């Protein structure tokens, strides 16, 4: 019993050690003295950024991700059903139709509320 | 074979929700007012269905049993949802967008509560809890034009997720110790073995997770901000529905799964109850905003309800069931009055309520009698409720007398802050330019209904008492 906990302890020590160790090694091998001037610029080559970098990005893609999830879940459930179609029988067919119906309602909703439109 | 026929309430509710969503898509944007009436009618029909089939009983799956206890709570949620819907008519119409979703989400939240109150199995229970919580996250943040609503939504989301995580951790510890997620099975396996540390930890986590939902101190910190920021009808529904559902599930877990571990959870629940009663009532005193005041009062009411669990008897469970139902009417009444006032004056500050009695006698009366019922003043329905709760604690053991006395003392404190609203409404002078309040006909009818029920059940509580205690009995049947 205690030995099993010891394994977990060693694992934890290893995990912490890896994280701390990599930081320490970085700190040891970093260039000293610290770089100055152009070396600290965001880009060593190319253009300077214009204006503040805290701008808002369009986050509409998450709606697509949500709708995609809809089909993702559908597929997950459709495959096992398709494999066991013969044995599962009529009740499973009705259940699956209800399930697909609910998902279709979700898609219809997203479509109608212009969730699929790229503005 | 799964008996789907017994799931008729859940299926009908889900169908209503889906239908409302589809209806919202079919009807042009300007003509969506009808959805509100459709929701109210649908919920009323479901309520009638629940009443007509209250004799239904049976096992769907080992962990999902339909009994009178679950049907009682389903009727409670449907009543709360129905009143919240009526309360929302004008409020949501004035927001002016996405009415279909609003009412569909309201119905789905009710469905989540039903599953939560019915299921006797940890995973199904969690599913119901999340369905309820996630719909509430959306509904709380529904006032898009108000940053306070967004703040409330984020706060509720973060703390709700935290409480869910704690709850799940507790569930996993319980499952790890007992090897089953079905509550009755857990109860059997625990009685055969002895308590161990992991089980105790799991139990503590589960109680902490549910304490978030029933807003027991010290897990209440989200309540005032969320209650203040959310749309008022949703605040009302959240404070009665979500709380009652969490109580239903907590009672099931504690009495079916951990009945013989009472020595472990009893001290915890007692501490939660004492803290909620004392802190909820005392912090409510300096509040200036009606919704915040009612939020702290709701924390205190959670404390009273926990007394029924402390008594750990049929009397206590029956008292919780009775009081939870009364709490629906009393709290809904108070929030309906607050909504009617907000719809006209766009304010929730107590000082703005000055002279409301002259501008809208009915609204002021509903507020007066609702808070009087919350305070437990006879002859209103809250009085027998508190009587049952306090006497159930004393009946358990005379050494718990101090707890009942504390509850009594804190009820006396609560009268003070409740009467502050009443004082403003009845003795203050309204601002000269303010006319009479415009209240929709549906809301007026609902207010009269609430008033009638509060008085009827205060003078003659027997019918609901019998129903509640019969529902409580089914929980203790093998």
Biggest sheet: strand arrangement of chain B:
1-2
Major sheet summary line of chain B: 2 strands, antiparallel
Element order of chain B: H for helix, E for strand: HHEEHHHHHHHHHHHHHHHHH
State the secondary-structure class of chain A: mainly alpha
The CATH class name of chain A reads Mainly Alpha
Could you report the average pLDDT of chain B, rounded to the nearest whole number?
Answer: 91
Number of helices of chain A: 3
How large is the radius of gyration of chain A?
27 Å
Q: What are the low-pLDDT stretches of chain B, counting only 5+ consecutive residues below 50?
A: none
Please tell me the overall pLDDT of chain A. Answer: 84
Describe this structure in words.
The complex is a heterodimer of chains A (119) and B (478). Chain A has 119 residues and is mainly alpha-helical. Chain A has one domain (2-112): Methane Monooxygenase Hydroxylase, Chain G, domain 1, CATH 1.20.58. Chain A is 66% helix and 0% strand. Chain A contains three helices and no strands. Chain A has helices at residues 2-29, 61-83, 85-112. In chain A, helix 2 packs antiparallel against helix 3 (85-112). The N and C termini of chain A lie far apart (60 Å). The model of chain A has no long low-confidence stretch (mean pLDDT 84). With 478 residues, chain B is mostly helical. Chain B has one domain (4-476). In chain B, 77% of the residues lie in helices and 1% in strands. Chain B has 19 helices and two strands. Chain B has helices spanning 8-26, 33-52, 68-95, 99-118, 122-140, 147-178, 183-192, 197-213, 223-229, 232-257, 262-284, 290-311, 314-345, 356-359, 361-375, 382-396, 401-427, 441-459, 462-476, and strands at residues 58-61, 64-66. Chain B has a two-stranded antiparallel sheet. In chain B, a hairpin with a 2-residue loop joins strand 1 and strand 2. The longest helix of chain B is centred in the middle third of the chain and has 32 residues, at 147-178. Chain B starts with 7 loop residues before the first helix and ends with a helix. The model of chain B has no long low-confidence stretch (mean pLDDT 91). At the A-B interface, helix 3 of A face helix 1 of B.
């Amino acid at each position: 019993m205690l030995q099993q906990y010891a394994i977990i302890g060693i694992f934890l020590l290893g995990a912490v050690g890896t994280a701390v160790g990599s930081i320490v090694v970085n700190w040891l091998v970093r260039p000293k003295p610290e770089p100055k001037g152009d070396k600290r610029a965001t880009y060593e080559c190319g253009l300077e950024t214009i204006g503040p970098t805290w701008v808002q990005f369009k986050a509409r893609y998450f709606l697509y991700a949500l709708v995609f999830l809809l089909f993702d879940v559908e597929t997950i459930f459709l495959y096992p059903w398709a494999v066991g179609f013969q044995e599962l029988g009529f009740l499973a067919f009705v259940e699956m139709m209800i399930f697909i119906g609910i998902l279709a309602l979700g898609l219809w909703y997203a479509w109608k509320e212009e969730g699929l439109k790229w503005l | 074979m799964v008996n789907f026929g017994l799931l008729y309430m859940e299926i009908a509710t889900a169908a209503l929700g889906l239908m409302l969503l589809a209806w919202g898509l079919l009807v042009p944007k300007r003509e969506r007012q009808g959805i509100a009436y459709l929701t109210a009618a649908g919920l009323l029909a479901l309520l009638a269905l629940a009443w007509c089939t209250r004799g239904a009983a049976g096992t769907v799956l080992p962990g999902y049993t339909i009994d009178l206890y679950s049907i009682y709570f389903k009727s409670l949620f449907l009543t709360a949802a129905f009143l919240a819907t009526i309360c929302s008519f004008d409020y949501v119409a004035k927001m002016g967008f996405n009415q279909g979703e609003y009412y569909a989400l309201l119905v789905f939240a009710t469905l989540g509560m039903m599953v939560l109150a019915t299921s006797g199995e940890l995973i199904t229970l969690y599913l119901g809890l999340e369905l309820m919580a996630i719909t509430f996250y959306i509904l709380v943040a529904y006032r898009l034009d108000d940053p306070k609503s967004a703040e409330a939504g984020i706060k509720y989301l973060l703390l709700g997720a935290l409480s869910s995580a704690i709850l799940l951790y507790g569930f996993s510890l319980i499952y790890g110790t007992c090897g089953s997620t079905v509550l009755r099975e857990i109860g059997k396996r625990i009685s055969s073995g002895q308590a161990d540390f992991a089980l105790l930890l799991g139990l503590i986590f589960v109680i902490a997770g549910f304490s978030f939902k029933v807003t027991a101190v010290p897990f209440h910190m989200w309540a005032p901000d969320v209650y203040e920021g959310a749309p008022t009808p949703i605040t009302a529904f959240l404070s009665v529905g979500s709380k009652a559902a969490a109580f239903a599930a907590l009672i099931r877990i504690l009495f079916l799964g951990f009945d013989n571990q009472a020595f472990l959870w009893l001290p915890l629940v007692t501490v939660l109850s004492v803290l909620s009663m004392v802190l909820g009532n005392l912090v409510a005193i300096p509040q200036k905003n009606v919704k915040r005041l009612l939020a702290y009062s709701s924390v205190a009411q959670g404390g009273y309800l926990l007394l029924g669990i402390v008594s750990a008897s049929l009397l206590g469970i029956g008292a919780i069931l009775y009081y939870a139902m009364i709490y629906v009417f009393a709290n809904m009444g108070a929030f309906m009055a607050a909504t009617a006032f907000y719809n006209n004056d766009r304010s929730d500050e107590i000082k703005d309520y000055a002279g409301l009695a002259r501008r809208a006698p009915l609204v002021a009366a509903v507020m007066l009698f609702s808070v009087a019922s919350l305070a437990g003043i006879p002859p209103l329905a809250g009085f027998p409720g508190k009587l049952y709760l306090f006497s159930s604690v004393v009946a358990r053991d005379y050494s718990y007398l101090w707890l009942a006395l504390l509850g009594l003392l804190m009820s006396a404190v609560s009268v003070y802050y409740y009467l502050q609203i009443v004082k403003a409404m009845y003795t203050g002078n309204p601002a000269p330019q303010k006319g009479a309040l415009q209240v929709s006909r549906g809301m007026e009818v609902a207010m009269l209904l609430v008033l009638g029920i509060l008085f009827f059940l205060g003078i003659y509580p027997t019918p609901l008492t019998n129903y509640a205690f019969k529902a409580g009995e089914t929980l203790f049947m093998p």
